[in-house]
Specification:
It is a single chain. This protein is mainly α and about 290 residues long. It has helices at about 5-20, 25-35, 40-50, 55-70, 75-90, 95-105, 110-125, 135-145, 150-180, 185-200, 205-215, 230-245, 250-260, 270-275, 280-285. It folds into two domains: about 5-155, no CATH class; about 160-285, no CATH class. It has 15 helices and no strands. The relative contact order is 0.05.
């Protein structure tokens, strides 16, 4: 395909995503010619097209070609092709079969950066992490002995991902609690960390803890006097409240409503009362 017009190459590769299904072996040769191409658009289109060539022969052929390219340096055409083949096999329909190909590829020595790429791809596909090729091979041997169906495999991967995410959230929350304790007597630093915590959308537990602590800082003192830190905490909560007011139901917005309501500050009623007419019953309940 070298020397052909880029636009024509892209059209061919896009067509192969569908036409190549009937003749995957012939299509594979055309796709393989584009994988690792200097033109990023061609490389990307070829990698995507490879993901549509669902055939046992394709998996095996990728394994054979990876074996030939295992010493290719990353900056060379062969190195780019090797990485493209790894990315392409990860797109195929049966990740369990693709995992077997990549684990077998690790059984032979390969260029260090390519080995890292293969291992990182395996981690994404399997939600497993091992520090050496030998550990990957030992794990794969046990998987094969269990003779999992594709649905059982998918269920286990989802389960591992969920468990890993919960562990990340638990670790992050514990770290955040220690951080808040360390900054308890440094209000400005504490507020900066709470503001960061409020933006951690990927870790809802940290966001909830930040909302709680901001609400605590925003409570009206017995003498009725305010402080710059209290005003800043309330501002952060009110701003977060506004970002969620158009959502059907947002549990974090409900937490903000609760935190603001517990400050005892009557001046905040205007920010809260319009939620009494919200479309979501749960949002209305939070505002009561």
């Amino acid at each position: 395909m070298a020397g052909e017009n880029t636009k024509a190459q892209l059209c061919i590769l896009r067509a192969l995503k569908w036409a190549g299904r009937a003749h995957p072996r012939a299509a594979f040769e055309l796709v393989d010619a584009g994988i690792g191409a200097p033109a990023e658009k061609i490389d990307d289109a070829a990698t995507r097209a490879l993901g549509f060539l669902e055939d046992p022969w394709v998996y095996a052929e990728i394994g054979r070609r990876l074996a030939k390219l295992r010493y290719a340096r990353p900056e060379t055409p062969d190195g780019r092709k090797a990485r493209g083949l790894v990315a392409g096999i990860a797109r195929l329909r049966y990740p369990m079969r693709a995992t077997g190909v990549l684990v077998r590829a690790l059984s032979e020595r390969m260029e260090p950066s390519l080995e890292r790429h293969v291992r990182q791809t395996l981690e994404l596909m399997t939600a497993q992490r091992f520090s050496s090729p030998a550990q990957w091979q030992a794990w794969w041997k046990k998987v094969q002995e269990r003779e999992l169906t594709p649905s059982e495999w998918a269920h286990e991967v989802v389960k591992r991902r969920s468990e890993a995410q919960r562990e990340i959230e638990r670790t992050a929350e514990e770290f955040y609690e220690r951080l808040l304790a360390a900054l308890a007597d440094k209000p400005q630093q504490l507020l900066r960390e709470l503001e960061r915590g409020l933006s951690q959308e990927e870790i809802p537990d940290v966001q909830q803890r930040a909302i709680f602590e901001l609400g605590r800082l925003g409570r009206l003192p017995d003498d009725g006097k305010t402080t710059p830190e209290r005003a800043q905490a309330l501002k952060l909560l009110v701003n977060r409240l506004k970002t969620g007011q158009n959502l059907e139901f947002d549990p974090l917005t409900a937490e903000v409503i609760k935190a603001l309501g517990q400050t005892g500050d009557a001046s905040l009623l205007a920010e809260l009362t319009h939620f009494l007419n919200h479309d979501s019953p749960r949002m209305r309940m939070a505002a009561v």
